[in-house]
Amino acid sequence: MGSDINFRVTLSIRKEPEFCPVYCKMEHSPKFPQQKTVKLSCDAIYRFDISFKPPQSLEVLSIDGKQIEAVERLRDGIACAYSAYFNTKDVQPCARGQREELPIIIKINSSGYLSTCLQIKYYKSDNRSHYEWGALLHCIELDCSCTDYQNIIVNKETYRKFGVET
């Protein structure tokens, strides 16, 4: 096994059909497990774009415990990109002060499983003033390494907002 395999995964979430970016906010309460919350609307479809640099082969994608079809959109010698669609049709809005976990598991050929979890606040679809408030989320970058060819470790997670890095 010997050497580490290092790569970056970039996750971008857009609301369909307008391909609108989603919003996120910083949490100031210690009651939430994560400092950042991604805001999503119930009864919506979101496009998840997942890119790898250098290229990796995505075998299986699971979002919120459901296997989702991921379609390869681009591949060259530098990077590759996949797209998948996640539907929040049957999701209930979060109560005030409540957050949900959105587990994302990616099986990568020859490397293993990458597991991450986003903290989400779901809003009613007619509550645009809340889910379209905060910082526009450009992407989430995951700097990863794999040493044992079974599990992938996320060494650094960076939320990139339009014009700002956090």
From TrEMBL:
Suppresses cannabinoid receptor CNR1-mediated tonic inhibition of voltage-gated calcium channels. It comes from the Eukaryota. Coiled coil: none annotated. It holds the Pfam family CNRIP1. GO terms for molecular function: type 1 cannabinoid receptor binding. This is CB1 cannabinoid receptor-interacting protein 1. Transmembrane segments: none annotated. Interacts with the cannabinoid receptor CNR1 (via C-terminus). Does not interact with cannabinoid receptor CNR2. One of its GO terms (cellular component) is plasma membrane. Belongs to the CNRIP family.
